[in-house]
Amino acid sequence: MKLFLHLFFFFFCFLQAAVSIAPLQSTHPFDPLTKQEITLIQTIILNKYPTKRNHVKFHYVGLDDPDKATVLEWVSTGAPTTRNAFVIAIINSQVHELTINLRSSRLLSDNIHTGNGFPTLTVDEQSDALQLPFKHRPFVESIKKRGLNLSEVVCSGFTVGWYGETQSSKRVLRIECFMKEETANIYVRPINGITIVADLEQMEIIEYHDNAVEPVPKAENTEYRASHLKPPWGNWKFHIGYDVRAGVIISTASIYDPEVHKSRSVLYRGYISELFVPYQDPTEEWYYKTFFDAGEFGFGQSVVSLEPFNDCPPHAQFLDSYVVGRDGTPQLLHNAICVFEQYGGISWRHTETGIPNQEIREVRSDVTLIVRSVVTVGNYDNVLDWEFKTSGSIKPTISLSGMLEIKAVDITHKDEIKGDQHGTLVSENSIGVYHDHYYIYHLDFDIDGVDNSFVKTNMKTVEVNDQSSKRKSYWTTSSEVVKTESDAKIKLGFSPSELAVVNPNKKTSTGNEVGYRLVPNAAAHPLLTDDDFPQTRGAFTNYNVWVTPYNRTEKWAGGLYVDQSHGDDTLAVWTKQQRGIENKDIVLWYVVGIHHVPCQEDFPIMPLLSTGFELRPTNFFERNPVLKTLSPGIVKGPGCKKP
Amino acid sequence: MKLFLHLFFFFFCFLQAAVSIAPLQSTHPFDPLTKQEITLIQTIILNKYPTKRNHVKFHYVGLDDPDKATVLEWVSTGAPTTRNAFVIAIINSQVHELTINLRSSRLLSDNIHTGNGFPTLTVDEQSDALQLPFKHRPFVESIKKRGLNLSEVVCSGFTVGWYGETQSSKRVLRIECFMKEETANIYVRPINGITIVADLEQMEIIEYHDNAVEPVPKAENTEYRASHLKPPWGNWKFHIGYDVRAGVIISTASIYDPEVHKSRSVLYRGYISELFVPYQDPTEEWYYKTFFDAGEFGFGQSVVSLEPFNDCPPHAQFLDSYVVGRDGTPQLLHNAICVFEQYGGISWRHTETGIPNQEIREVRSDVTLIVRSVVTVGNYDNVLDWEFKTSGSIKPTISLSGMLEIKAVDITHKDEIKGDQHGTLVSENSIGVYHDHYYIYHLDFDIDGVDNSFVKTNMKTVEVNDQSSKRKSYWTTSSEVVKTESDAKIKLGFSPSELAVVNPNKKTSTGNEVGYRLVPNAAAHPLLTDDDFPQTRGAFTNYNVWVTPYNRTEKWAGGLYVDQSHGDDTLAVWTKQQRGIENKDIVLWYVVGIHHVPCQEDFPIMPLLSTGFELRPTNFFERNPVLKTLSPGIVKGPGCKKP
After folding, report:
1. Is the confidence at residue B62, as pLDDT, over 60?
2. Among A260, A512, B224, B246, which residue has the least CB neighbours within 10 Å?
3. Position A189 in a domain
4. ipTM of model
5. CA-to-CA dists, residue B6 to A332, A544, A634, B29, B223, angstroms
6. What is the pLDDT of residues B571-601, one digit of tens each?
7. Across the interface, do B619 and A424 touch by the CB < 8 Å criterion?
8. For the residues A589-595, what does the mean pLDDT come to?
């Protein structure tokens, strides 16, 4: 019974990491019910309510949590806790709550629930209900009327919610049916237009309407079982560049489309254009600390050599680069970039239990490609990843490590603090000063061609006031093609929307514009006043998202000359031109921000703090592009046999 | 020259995944400058400006991006592009922008920049400037006055920004110095109180003040080189439970604190309390689809068997569990949960180039422990991970896969759409209906003991109006201990704050309350009206964060009986009691929401869409708890020799 164990996680010097699942002397108070305990519960309840005279259904059987105090006592001393079970059963159509002492095998309580709502449905009653339509003549006729083959129909059950009905309700299930003909993917082949409601207690259909005949969507391209598919390739093609200012640059990235048998362009260029780090201490020794790490110190110039095995896993490949000395001499930077595959995730999966006599489980494990570099500007280390997924997603990740900037103070305990110290006392005499990190990505999309548009799809509430629905509201979307760079300035987090770059000249077979969308992380907004000098220079942080027409010279969001700049050559200035961005070559700029309130764990060197975002294909492909791919084989590491 | 290559990423049926770094016939137009090209550039510029008569410094040497049209032409036909370099050099104190044709070895242009701002600093001039203080008598005296050893001092350079000065500025660098005595971690041992400004052109100190003597923070506990540390253990201890309604439950999680040599409690219980999935189609066949997957169908009851190698990597360990049939009989669920280690990340790192004659690079690779289960409710598959990091972080991740719910329509192309179809035409006759996924986590923290408080730390702008600083603004924090559950209801994303659960009865040696903070992802807010029936039942989504006093029976955010519930037993109702939550046993509830606008890639089965959050120690430890740990050894997989 592996589950009923403690799990210890440890690693030890020079030994390899190891998971140890070790048995305990005694069971944990939160151990799930054992097989024997479940059988005991069943016996006790059926002893009181013999099935000869009673109709008994177990809806919930679980542990009745012991009191916290006793659990904590067990944790520290091993003192035994109570071990009770809590059961919700429907007995003769009444909802019973029963508590059982598992040590004494005694029924402690048996109360009848009379309030609103019903217990979790049993799997068995759902299965039974889903057979009802096949014996219901009107349903058989509806199927016949549609010209469908009843033996290829399979049904599924849906809970019904509550819409203000005041009469006492019955336990019911709505049933919808699907075609399993030519595909295991029943959900995409609904037989719509039929309403079926089953009473779960009487186990009979109590409502049936055939309202309208809608075509059943075709089976073509819906199959997902590997045994029914021919695996194609999944394939990214991109260039990894390097620049002494930008660091790593991803260029001309395109992905192979298995449907059209060609590579399609996605990202012309992607790189971090600037990193703005304003500290938040206005005093004489600190006020000026408002750094632009890319423009002032050179992100590429600050790339450091990676350490094999530790910065990148053992199977990584490394790339070198050249930096340039003050006198113009090239200097080799060894292991500047590494590239490796990452495993352990899932690409897609589904377990299907809804088709009688067939259990289907299809799982594709994931393999992604990561391009990593580390930029160390003085005290901070920025770990910068570009992850490419076979599904078409690109996921950039930023992780912070290295040291805090520390201010020395004559304070050793928080109680001595008087006035604002502009940071956290992270150690004796050491204030970790408040600051922000704003990374701005230059993302020059070329979605299936150069001319693209930026589309903002807003979600908005629609109120239903005309009794046309039992619902009072729902949400829908309205899409807006953004016309100019002025309208494309967006502060994220205040209203729900999806942001996409699309190619209005290329459509899918069903007429959607092909595109990629930005899946952002939690947004940070600047807290400096607009007219403050650092904010003027870092005005590209005023919005999280910007879109500009492509201009070969607009590369650096903080300006070409940033050291002591006056903020007259920033993205915020360029976009005052109100240039058109519809169906044009456009660049999306995205700001990833972190407000950093230091804590003691960041001292004397901080464990990685990570954030990132996703560029995800959205109607770019006709369908899931990795539907037909198989899981990668087990990777044979150096010195390994295949397991 | 590996860097100057295309990188192809592919995987193929039955073959193991492989990265192929393959040479191209021709170089890519975005290939970084080669060593030979950099030397050529140096030669051309120094030919025009011989160093005998000129002072030349190279501040930027990079590729002058070819026109996009020519790059794209190269991508499709291989037609050659121009290959120019762009150089920013300071020649005799003037900033020159030079363009060079690398094919013809010709200088194409040479313009002088006269605007604001200066180029990226060279590494060499920074190094030179950092030696200046040691020859500056007042600095030597300042060090002596502080009783410090000059041979243990090391300096670092900082750009100065711009604060509205109108006279033409000089290229300057501010210099701060640090003690390297007894530690390589110079940044945490600043010698504060001294202002040093160096002119980078004249290479001399032009401003020097010794304002105040502050103690230099001690070296103790700041060292990070493995060679100077004794590695301790990193160790999580927790219980993995299972419940037919909740699925996986993490209990009594504690982490070993290497400073105090004992395990300290963090999380008493954590699990997903409910999953609310309202669809957004008000029509007769769809309006009722507002599911509560945990309460109506049972999250644990819907856990599916994991597939070794694909759902979990080859080295995973599996745990079984029992579900209960309608008749009360236990039924074995094989491979319900898996546990595995994940590699490839970095735990912490730093490269130190600031200490003369010493290069330091310390990198600890990461190993984390993941507990995974998959809950498949009908069409959707939810991949649910709990990740435990040695640094003390817990990172829950939710990933969606499986099938969309599809509505059949008599439409095959977007152009035929009339009116709101409440979804996306993801394939012929198939609307993927708009919906939300709201997961609510029950997180019963016991931070170093049972009685905890919930602290909201707000970041707020402070304007400087009194000329006390050259800054006009900065931000600071104000922390608020939240008194009652009513005040703890928080909609995330609208104002910057950090949310933490702390133990007000346990403080670090510097007086900070020990705690854990919530690092949220982008927040989703409900779009249904408050009075709509589904929203009343799912009112626990009205806020992203809630805090309640611990109550053994308040386990299910949507109520104990959810099927056809009226919303009278939800978290939103309980918290109307305005119970106190200060220095009490408290539970934090966190809602992870996704608004799902389907796209064609989600059809016929969707690639994983992931989101998650982090529970991160914040002043819980005295310092970085993995400072002294070493990287785990290379893992020897089954059938492998150690590489």
Report:
1. yes
2. A260
3. yes
4. 0.93
5. 20, 32, 26, 11, 41
6. 999 999 999 999 999 999 999 999 999 999 9
7. yes
8. 98
Ramachandran assignment for B8, one of left (phi > 0), alpha (psi -120 to 50 degrees), beta (any other): beta
Which positions ≥6 away from B439 have C-beta within 8 Å? B272, B274, B275, B398, B591, B592, B593
The enclosing domain of B137 has a CATH number of: 3.10.450.40
Give the pLDDT confidence of B386-434 residue by residue, as tens digits. 999 999 999 999 999 999 999 999 999 999 999 999 999 999 999 999 9
What does the angle CA B546 – CA B547 – CA B550 come to, to the nearest 5 degrees? 135
Q: Is residue A624 part of a domain?
A: no
Active site residues of A: 293, 380
Domain co-membership, B33 together with B100? yes
Which of these is catalytic: B242, B271, B380, B550?
B380
Q: How far apart are CA B176 and CA B142, in angstroms?
A: 13
Residue B12 in this model has a pLDDT that exceeds 70:
no
Name every chain B residue with its beta carbon within 8 A of the beta carbon of A401.
346, 348-350
Residue of B178, B173, B177 whose CA lies nearest to B158? B173
Statement: residue A125 has pLDDT above 60: yes
Task: Fill in the DSSP letter of residue A563.
Answer: B
The answer on B240 and B173 residing in a single domain is: no
B293 is catalytic: yes
- State the residue range of the domain holding B613: 236-618
pLDDT value at A1 more than 80: no
A160 → closest Cβ in B235, B288, B422: B288
The region that residue A92 occupies, defined by phi over 0 for left and psi between -120 and 50 for alpha, beta otherwise, is left
Let me know whether A160 and A82 are in one domain. no
Cα nearest neighbour of B283 on chain A: A469
Is residue B581 a contact partner of residue B548, using CB atoms and an 8 Å limit? yes
Within a domain: residue B630? no
Residue the block writes with tokens 């009490």: B584
A67 shares a domain with A34: yes
Among A192, A223, A254, which residue terminates a domain? A223
Q: In whole numbers, what is the pLDDT of chain B averaged over residues?
A: 92
Question: Are A181 and A284 found together in one domain?
Answer: no
Quote the number of domains for chain B. Answer: 3
Provide, as residue numbers in chain B, all residues whose Cβ is less than 8 Å from the Cβ of A13: 231, 629-630
- The reply to whether residue B11 touches residue A390, judged by beta carbons under 8 angstroms, is yes
- Residue B301 Rama label (left phi>0; alpha psi -120 to 50; beta): alpha
**pLDDT tier at B375 (50, 70, 90 boundaries)?**
very high
pLDDT band at B53 (very low <50, low <70, confident <90, very high): very high
Select from A199, A223, A247 the last residue of a domain: A223
Find how far residue A498's CA is from the centre of its chain: 15
Tell me phi and psi for residue B431, to 5 degrees: -100, 125
Q: Say if residue B45 is in the same domain as residue B73.
A: yes
CB contact under 8 A, A427 and B402: no
Kindly determine whether residue B119 and residue A28, on different chains, have CB atoms separated by under 8 Å: no
Q: Is the dihedral of CA B484, B487, B488, B489 positive or negative?
A: positive
Shared domain for A99 and A17, answered yes or no, is yes
Q: What is the CATH number of the domain that holds A243?
A: 2.70.98.20
Residue A431 vs residues A425, A522, B622: alpha-carbon distances, Å: 5, 27, 14
Residue A329 and residue B35: Cα distance in Å, rounded?
9
- Please check whether residues A361 and A316 belong to one and the same domain: yes
**Secondary element (H or E) of residue B43:** helix B35-48
The confidence score (pLDDT) of residue A356 equals 87
B528/A164 Cα distance (integer angstroms)? 16
Residue A536 maps to a domain: yes
| pLDDT of B378 above 70 | yes
